[in-house]
Amino acid sequence: MYRYIIKRFAMLIPILLGVSFMIFFMMDCAPGDITDVIGQDMSKEVVAQIREDLGLDRSVFYRYFLFMKGLVVGDLGYSYSYEAPVSDLYFQRLPYTLKLSFGAILVCVIMAIPLGILAALKRGTLIDNACSAFAILGLSIPHFWLGLLLIILFAQKLGWFPSFGASEGIKSLILPSFSVGTAMMAVMTRTTRSSMLDVLRADYLRTARSKGVDESLVISKHGLRNALIPIITVFGTQLGTCFGGTVVTENVFSYPGVGQMMVAGINRRDTTLVCGFIMMSVIMISLIQLFVDIAYAYVDPRLKGQFSSPSKKKTKKEE
After folding, report:
1. Do both 68 and 95 map to the same domain?
2. Which of 62, 86, 110 is the last residue of a domain?
3. What domain range includes position 27?
4. Start-to-end Cα distance in the chain
5. Residue 286, in any domain of the structure
6. 3-class DSSP state for residue 102?
7. Helical ranges in the chain per DSSP H
8. Nearest C-alpha neighbor of 176 from the set 265, 280, 257, 278
């Protein structure tokens, strides 16, 4: 298990290198730089000093080297547009994005798993087709369009929820969570349906029914539990996608998360902030995927052998 975890962390190195350089190159190709935004009311000497500190008077490779040198020691750099260290800005916004991500996953799970189970139990019927159509409809609707509809209906017309910000706690999370969660619902619904169909044909479910076990326990305890492996896979993938894909929703609802500040950093040509935020997001998504992989072993003990070290496997064979 430990070797697997170390191997996964080692795989982060080429990913971080590739992502960071790509972002640096793309931001360098964009017209202007951060001094065009923050240097309007500054003297030429101050602007020149900022450009020298950020390496803007040098090549993109030199700036990339400076950024990676700081990243190695845990320094994400300093944002001149917000006049604060990038790491402080990131961890100030991270709790909001985590709340939104887990809220969206909660909405997705609450809708997708019951729909998937129901569609599997009613395979080939009108209910099955209706559940699948509803799930695909959620995938087809763009985030920003659904978010605007939710704001118009539930915020402006009915006044049930706030239309922007995070000042009202859980109430501020409901609309953006629903906007993001419905898009992820289709994949998890279809995965749950497919996995449950495979399990429902298993012999051990027939045995449980023949022993007189209640049908609800057969489905929930024996069926769903053995169908969790692909569902957990999709859950982890969707959680990582959700964490990195809330940018549009955060801007529609003016939600103070990582994505909103990242877009503001792009508009301000703040390469240091954008790269720091993206690098931290890549690390977070990779950690989520790692935790999902480890969770497989606890859901299905048969998978523990895949995480065992070669020395242990060899010892077992020799015995």
Report:
1. no
2. 86
3. 2-86
4. 21
5. no
6. helix
7. 2-29, 35-38, 44-54, 60-72, 86-121, 126-140, 143-150, 170-200, 203-210, 215-217, 224-226, 228-244, 247-252, 258-267, 271-299, 304-307, 310-318
8. 257
Is residue 285 a part of any domain in this protein?
A: no
pLDDT by 10s per residue, the chain, length 319 = 667 677 777 777 787 788 778 877 887 777 777 777 777 777 777 778 877 777 777 777 888 888 888 888 888 888 878 888 888 898 988 888 888 888 888 888 888 888 888 888 788 788 888 887 887 787 777 777 888 888 888 888 888 888 877 777 788 888 888 888 887 787 788 878 877 777 777 666 667 667 666 666 667 666 666 667 777 777 777 777 777 667 888 888 888 888 888 888 888 888 888 888 888 888 887 777 777 777 666 665 555 555 554 544 444 444 4
Rounded-to-integer distance, Cα 180 and Cα 145, Å: 11
Closest CA to 187 of 225, 124, 230, 229: 230
CA diameter of the chain:
85
